[in-house]
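# nightly structure sweep
# worker-07 picked up a monomer target from the shared queue
# config: single-sequence mode, recycle default, output format = structure tokens
# input follows
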Amino acid sequence: QLQVVESGGGLVQPGGSLRLSCAASGFSLDYYAVGWFRQAPGKEREGVSCILSSDGSTFYADSVKGRFTISRDNAKNTVYLQMNSLKPEDTGVYYCAARLPDSTSVQDMCVISRIIIPYNYWGQGTQVTVSS
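# output follows
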């Protein structure tokens, strides 16, 4: 079955860290661009961070820049999102998604309003709760 599966979510105190994993099965994730998105209760889904397959270019939303880091481990067929200095406003369901490479810039595939070509695969999401 071709799919991506997220893991690593949980409950963490403000200032803490989590590492989310996006593992692919049935296909090689290293050929795909990957994005992390999140959705808080009552809010629209938003792009958090994306990474290209071609040159490893990355994009971060302003709200997470300097705190989150996206990376890929092709040997493990996995993309990670390291989240440090977590804030209550980071709470939400985090989704990873994978798409075949094209000419779309890493920013345009990460900002919801700019996404034209849909992602090929979406995970089911993992809950992240930042609370004391």
